[in-house]
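GNAT family N-acetyltransferase
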Amino acid sequence: MTPTQKRVRLRHVTEADLPLLCLRAAAMEQRGEFESTRMSSPKSIHKRFAEDDFSSDDSERLLVCAEGGEVIGDVSHFLAHRYATARELGWSIFDPALRGQGFGTAAAQALVNYLFNNFNINRVCCSVSPGNIASRRIAEKAGLRYEGCLRGVVFIRGEYVDSEVFGLLRADWQRG
């Protein structure tokens, strides 16, 4: 590990984490310019946790913990297409002061490894807003390659925006 690399651990959401997730859902000032401004209610967060602990065959949300154990963000994966086993990835580091320090890259790499080591899938992918250079670099450092642009596919902040698609196949991941 070089001095700039960060170590993180992924773990499942517990009931004790729900107050943090509720605060995060309302913390508009911590959201970056490329994140949705849609808020989730505390009731909906508690309901989802009661239904499946944020972990199902269709989607999973895991918390990102720094070396000291504190929760600093989350990652998620969900079915990318109804007709395939491919998983789409997402990541977020909650505190803007911790962004740009390698935690996002470490979290994305940990998620990619988790998925290929534990699921019978051949592909992972992510979608990144064209101007989101930080997320593009995270995707690339996690081994995903640029595959193309989907025009007007995501509705964020009142408008449809383009999305750049990055992907990684199991064989590429195995080659490292």
